[in-house]
Structure formats: structure tokens, C-alpha cells
Amino acid sequence: MSRIRFDRSEEPREGTIPDLAELCRIHEIGLDLIGRSHDVDDLLDRILDEYESRLQDLPSDALDARTGRAAPESMRKLRALVMFAAQATALKEKAVAAAELKRRAAMLEEGNVKLVAALEEAERMRAHLDGVLAGLSSGVMILDGAGSLVKANAAARALAGAGEDTALATLIAHGVPRDGEAEIDLPTRGGGRRTLLVARRAMSGPRASEVVMVTDVTQRNRAVEERVRLEKLAEVLKTLSVLSHKINNPLTALLGRAQILQAHRSSDPAVAKAAAVIEEASQRIAELIRELARVVREGRHDALDDLLDMLPPGTAGDER
Amino acid sequence: MKVHATREGPALRIALRGCGAIDSVNASAVKAESLRLIGEATDVIVDLSGVEFIDSAGVGVLVGLFKSLRMRGGRARFCGLTPGVRAVIEIIRLDRIFEIDDDAASAASA
Lengths: 320, 110
What we know:
The complex is a heterodimer of chains A (320) and B (110). Chain A is α+β, with helices and mostly antiparallel strands and 320 residues long.
């Protein structure tokens, strides 16, 4: 057997598996055979070398169970081989387990590095999102699955009123349908009313959360109301224009006849008085028609109320 | 002892047949013939179903084949161990070093 003897003054090299060094001492295995056994493959090579060497040195009768009469020297070498095999295989399995642990530790470390990177990226994204939300003029609120407020940007807090964003979130959660829109009227500190247009949308992702857009539509609603009012008024003025034109023709005829009656100086004082009343009334109507025409022409709807006041009792002026 | 080589799926199957023993008498010849048949193959199944007795020299042949395949980055598996061979392998714990399957089909699918 060409075994290199173990030199007891030789210490295990840096990185050598400690148990392997002990194994070498017990079984007189040269450290230079296993000195580079820093991993499982190399260790297995060294163990196989030692197996091969010891098997060559083992007499044939040592493993012959058929005779059962192995020589004492054969039995001694067999016992040494069996002891070596027991410890070497245990060591190999330990090294395999250690290598597996090392591999898993490396995987965990790699996973940890990725996780940290992902968390940092998420933090950057969150900061970016916060910046975007802060810069939006519209109110944005984030609600969790239970409808509780998670986040609100400055615009949303301003619309809700100081410290009232949580109350507004609750109001939205109960008053606005999911994935729907609704207007909410809120009192203002000055005693007025404010109308908020609220839109709820589900956010994609594992958590059931929602994004809520809040827009103050008070001014917009007022503008719409004013436009509708003006449109209605324009219709009224148009109708008045038509009416004044249609009234003016028969009125002119009426006024002319009254003036003829007065020119002939009727002997009947009652007729003369009636003619005078007809003419006066006709003049008033003519004046009213001219005023109406002027209002219509100038579009002065503010003067319409004054004009309607001029209408005689029992006309449309009393029906407003 | 004769050594036969056949294909077992992607692996080369080496079957040891003949006198039923690998011992000091034929160990060198069996090893040399096996290595010749293995050639450049890297996936080898050693079928021992025809071996009834093995001594230290025979075990040395198996260790030598196993090492030879490992050294070239290959793989050797053993199958068909008879009770006598299995007992010897287990005494010296090579069952915890070698890859051992019940038969060639199991080894080929491992």
C-alpha cells in the first residue's frame, strides 16, 4: 500500500474540513491526500482514493463470507476498513448536508438581496407616487378594503376641511357606490354649501383597496345653473319679441280708430270718454311693447322684471 | 467473466456475466474490459445481477469504475445487486457512496 504517512506535526490547512483532519489522524491518512478537500466533490475523490488503496491492501479472504475463516490480520484490516468507511461516509453525508445548507444560505442571501432591492424600489415608487399625489390639484384618497382612509393628498385634505379627511372618507365609503360616482354636499365654515364630485375606483393588486378622486364642482355646478337660466331667459325674450310684434299690429289699428272717434268729437260724452280711455290704454300698451322690444333688443334681462311690473293687473306679470 | 455492453435509454449498460464472481483472479481483466467498453461514455449503469461473489479486489474494480466516471464528469450507477454482493457493499458502507438501484430500468429512469 503506497500510503503517505500522516505527519502529526502537520496542522490542517486553512479551510480544511476539521472532522476530516480528525479522520486522517485516526486512520493514518496522509493530509496531503485530502488537504484540498474543501468541497464535497473533492472530499469524495479523496475518500474513493482511500477506499481503493485500502481494498488493494485487504486480503481476499477478509470479505469471503463463504469460508468464514479469515486470517486475524485480514480481520484487523477489514475492521479498520469498516471503521474508516463508517466515519468517511458519515463525514461525506455531513459535508453533503453542509454543502446543501450553504447552497440554501446562498439562495436565501440572493433572495434577501433581491427582496431588499425590491423594497428599495417600492420605497422609491412610493415616494414618487407621494410626489405625484401632492402635485395634483384634484383630491385623491386611498381607502382600504374596509373603506377606511389610508392616504389623502393635500388637495383632498383641503377639500375635506382641516382634520376632517377621515370623516369625509367614511362619508364616501357609505354614500358613494363602489366603482361609481356621486356628488356630496358639504357645509362650509362660512355657512355655505360645497359640492364635491366623488369617483371610486378599485385598485388592482392583492389588497382590496380603492382610489377616490374628489373634485370641488361647486363653481362648475353654479356655472351650469346660470347657463341654463340664461338659456331659458333667452327663450322668454324670443317669445316676447314675437308677441310684441303680433300685438303691435292690432294695437295700431285700435289706436287709430280711437283717435278717429276723438277727432269727430262725438256728441255723446260717454263715447268721447270711452274713446279717450281706449286711446290712453292703447298708448300704454304701445309704450309697453316698445319697452319690451328695447329689452329684447338689448338683452337686458335684468330690466325684464321692471317691465313685467308695468303689465296691467290680470296679465302674466301677476302669474310669476 | 464476460462483460456485455448495451444501451439502456440514454445510458450505457455494462452487464457482468459468466462465472458469477469478481475476485483477485479476474479483477484486472474485468476492469480493463469494462473500461474498454465504456470508452467515452459518461452515463453508465453497471448491472451486477450476474455476480454472486465479490472480494476486495472485485470491490476495488467497482470503486475504480465509479472513480473513472467521476473523473471525467460522468456518472456510474449500480443495479441488480445479489444478496452476497449487497452484503459486502453494505459492510464497507459503499451503499452510502455509490448510486444503487434495484434494476437497470430503475437506474435508467433515476
